[in-house]
Sequence to fold (251 residues):
Amino acid sequence: MTTTPLLSVRSLSYAYDGRRAVNDVTFDIARGEIFGLLGPNGAGKTTTISCVSGLKHGWDGELSFDGAPFAPQEDAGQRARLGVVPQELAVYEHLSARENLSFFGRLSGLRGDALDARVDAALALAGLAERADDRVKEYSGGMKRRLNLVVGGLHEPDLVVLDEPTVGVDPQSRNHIFEALETLRDGGRTLLYTTHYMEEAERLCDRIAILDEGRVVAIGTRAELAETAGIPGADLERVFLELTGKRLRDR
Ligand SMILES: Nc1ncnc2c1ncn2[C@@H]1O[C@H](COP(=O)(O)OP(=O)(O)OP(=O)(O)O)[C@@H](O)[C@H]1O
Ligand SMILES: [Mg+2]
Fold:
């Protein structure tokens, strides 16, 4: 039996000044899964998710969300079905975590008890309850990343899109981020996760698309990717090398 994908991306292409950064990219994300976009520097990960989350105009291709045509670049209501956790931190340093969350919660229309409950849940999910009222500028890099993450999911969108959320964080914060993501998935969210860390994709993602130079090279579960590469049972590192002839960047 086939079920309707939550997000369907068909032949997505995008060019910067005539230079193609995303080239005929096609994938489906099933409801409830963590879907990984794995690729090196400049592969087109950020550009792809910017197109699907409504941050870019002028792409070619077709998007659908829950079976219906999707144009988040034109429609704020559709855009709100996704939560985006950007690669760059997008929180206010001079406010506390609680103030940041209240601010972004109000922007998405939450008020009163509903807002307070959502903010408390987000603080707990990020492991920031005890530091909730300290200014963000006093936080470690990992704490800021965790706050960035829960801000993106605060309005409880169907799909949370995360752009390399663990870059520059220590192992403890990284584990905390993984646990938060697994909690989100177990609570019914669907996640689109970009990374250049193969071990993250391996640990976290149900299915993975390998992206290189703007193209999807292969797509599937880890086992399916190894089959595609003709090396059953191999880890993602070998699969990536086999499929692209390259290593992923600095690790
Ligand atoms: N604003 C821009 N103007 C021109 N070219 C760009 C712009 N942003 C990205 N590119 C180019 O598009 C290609 C894809 O970049 P993109 O940022 O989508 O890759 P990425 O996979 O997210 O890389 P990273 O891992 O470094 O974040 C690269 O060649 C990049 O140089
Ligand atoms: Mg990027």
About this structure: The two ends are 40 Å apart (CA to CA).
